Amino acid sequence: MSKHCSHTAQDAPPWWRLDLTKVYNVTRVKVTNRGDCCSERIDGAEIRIGLSPEHGGTKNPKNRPYEDFIPEYICGMVGQYVTVTIPDRPEYLTLCEVKVYGEEKIFFYADVNLALRGISSQSSTYDYLGAAENAIDGSRSTNYMSGHCTHTAQDAPPWWRLDLTKVYNVTRVKVTNRGDCCSERIDGAEIRIGSSPEHGGIKNPKNRPYEDFIPEYICGMVGQYVTVTIPDGPEYLTLCEVKVYGEEVIGNYTVVNLALRGISSQSSTYDYLGAAENAIDGSSSTNYLSKHCSHTHLDIEPWWKLDLRKVYNVTRVKVTNRGDCCNERLNGAVIRIGLSPEHGGTLNSNCGTVSSIGLGETVSFNCDGMVGRYVTIVIPGETRSLSLCEVQVFGVPTDKASKYKARWRSYDICTSV
User: Which residues form the Fucolectin tachylectin-4 pentraxin-1 domain (predicted)?
Assistant: First the structure.
């Protein structure tokens, strides 16, 4: 009666939808139920998050039901629309407050195909040409006879499953269909992503059906297992390549490339091609002429600095060298992390040193949760040019650090070079 709660008629299904006005990686949703009566009406409500406003957003991918996460839901799902709906009965829907937390989704996608590191399996294997691992062998062939596609028997339902070996926030899945015949067999296939390997992963939450996102699926779903299945079989399932992209997850926190949100600067700028921000533009190009690399003048102790804009416990830093020439120029560069921006951050603590790096090569440094706002790359004690084609920084906010510190070593598999 305070006029601070929403209330629908007895709809089938009732829904309440929030348009965030742009796309976010939604990390949490908090729902406050009515307190004066009728609390049971919300039982079974679903949280749905996605890109479609149609039908009130009730067809978007769903988080777990209301009763699983009272009163807070950990999501890690990408979307513009957040919907609360009760799917299974005519019901009134009353909400007294909905809070949504997340980060704006900047679509600089990591270019690492996680599938190449995974372990594949399938419901059955049709013959010796159709092994499950053929869908993650990196081949572009779409001819089944080439031995680079999978093939199940006529199962009900058929499935192919990828074990990523640890938990990721899966941002994209790309599926390549058979090209020599039978393209229609995959119609209606579903992409399912979650934490359960049981039944081939076919009970995990699903992304939209295959026909909606050919050939690429925007997911934003958290899980270790990625499954492709045709639920309405019996049917054969053939896949010629599956690529999976995403961000590592520690606990309920998605480890994103913090550099994409930062502000960069450097000791000097060689020319218009070599701006400091080129090293955090998300590009995989290592050719200086592409305008995707930074470059200083011939400075005494040249430096490049990244301001993360707030303090983090930095777990990893990845540095990509120029690929068209001059790879030796980066040898001896030091990674420094700390709280001081003075002198380009060159007086902050040392995370690691680039002892040697090849053309276009990327090296990774385990920084073991060093505290800092500024990440600096500097070549100490020499007069040299500093050129960087990409810098990636990973970590967790300092207020979350104690919760996840024990996990850093098991998740950060790369060490200093």
Answer: 1-104, 111-251, 255-399
